[in-house]
């Protein structure tokens, strides 16, 4: 991996074009707001969007990405399966993946979790309190016991994900629901972090705590190794003594002749 962490922020970038209320909050897109919000000397950030050729996720881009952020909502079906497989392969090799808000229903998150990733939801601009349940984790550094968002879309349990390897945040909503708002997973050699805040009609990606969590997650998810998938036939490291047995093609032990 290069000295800087190569980050690709992927966003559908359609709500900002189609809905005036969203465009007013994110005139250059949510991906641009996140990119500006987490910008730092140790991060080399690029963005990609759905309507670019190959969704901006060409072989070259994915090959040279250390950590990818993913925001999707109403157009999950429009993401090409070939691109999903490309991203999934890189995660299994070691690339980090941070799935944001409604990206829970994306093809890539479903592919990597193997579950429905379904949940309950309600959009009435209610307050959310995110409880930091892993204060020693790298993702929560600089975050207090909790932080609050004045307006957010409610996501509620049950959340159709596998048991997280690490639970980072639990969200409580004004209407009474709770949600596993920050969950970390390992798949192959890659790290995955799902982070719930980020509904497009609220200025969540300008919130200092949200941006701090995302920045921390990028550094946590940065790969330590990259191991490409292979199933090589290898020579033994040590000398193997001859055995007086033989095996058939199906691996069935054959009785040696006396």
Q: What can you see in these coordinates?
A:
The protein is of the alpha/beta class and 258 residues long. The protein has a single domain, classed as Class I glutamine amidotransferase (GATase) domain (Rossmann fold, 3-Layer(aba) Sandwich). It has seven helices and eleven strands. It has helices at 15-18, 20-25, 30-38, 59-63, 81-93, 107-113, 208-221; strands spanning 5-11, 43-49, 67-71, 96-100, 120-132, 146-156, 166-173, 178-187, 190-195, 246-247, 253-254. The strands form two sheets. Strands 2-1-3-4-9-8-7-5-6 form a nine-stranded mixed β-sheet. Strands 10-11 form a two-stranded antiparallel ribbon. The N and C termini lie far apart (58 Å). The model has no long low-confidence stretch (mean pLDDT 95).
From the N-terminal CA to the C-terminal CA, the straight-line distance is 58 Å
**What is the helix content?**
10-25%
CATH fold naming: Rossmann fold
Q: Return the string of H and E elements.
A: EHHHEHEHEHEEEEEHEE
User: Strand content of the residues, in percent?
Assistant: 25-35%
Question: What is the CATH H-level superfamily?
Answer: Class I glutamine amidotransferase (GATase) domain
User: What's the structural domain tally?
Assistant: 1
Radius of gyration: 22 Å
Strand order of the largest sheet: 2-1-3-4-9-8-7-5-6
Integer average pLDDT:
95
The CATH architecture is 3-Layer(aba) Sandwich
Which segments are poorly predicted (pLDDT under 50) over 5 or more consecutive residues?
none
**Helix/strand class:** alpha/beta
Report on the biggest sheet. Answer: 9 strands, mixed
Q: What is the overall number of helices?
A: 7
């Amino acid at each position: 991996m290069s000295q800087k962490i190569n980050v690709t922020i992927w966003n559908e970038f359609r709500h900002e074009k189609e809905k005036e209320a969203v465009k007013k909050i994110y005139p250059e897109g949510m991906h641009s707001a996140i990119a500006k919000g987490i910008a730092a000397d140790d991060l080399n950030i690029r963005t990609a969007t759905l309507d670019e050729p190959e969704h901006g996720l060409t072989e070259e881009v994915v090959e040279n990405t250390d950590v990818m952020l993913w925001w999707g909502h109403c157009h999950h079906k429009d993401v090409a399966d070939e691109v999903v497989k490309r991203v999934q392969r890189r995660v299994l090799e070691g690339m980090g993946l941070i799935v944001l808000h409604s990206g829970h229903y994306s093809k890539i998150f479903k592919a990597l979790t193997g579950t429905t990733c379904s949940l309950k939801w309600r959009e009435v601009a209610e307050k959310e309190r995110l409880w930091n349940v892993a204060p020693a984790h790298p993702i929560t550094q600089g975050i207090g016991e909790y932080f609050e968002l004045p307006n957010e879309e409610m996501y509620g349990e049950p959340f159709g994900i596998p048991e997280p390897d690490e639970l980072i945040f639990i969200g409580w909503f004004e209407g009474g629901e709770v949600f596993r708002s920050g969950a970390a997973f390992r798949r192959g050699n890659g790290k995955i972090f799902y982070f719930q805040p980020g509904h497009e009609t609220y200025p969540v990606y300008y919130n200092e705590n949200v941006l701090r969590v995302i920045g921390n997650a990028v550094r946590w998810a940065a790969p330590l190794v990259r191991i490409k998938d292979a199933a090589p036939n290898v020579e033994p490291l040590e000398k193997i003594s001859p055995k007086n047995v033989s095996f058939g093609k199906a691996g069935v032990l054959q009785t040696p002749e006396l």
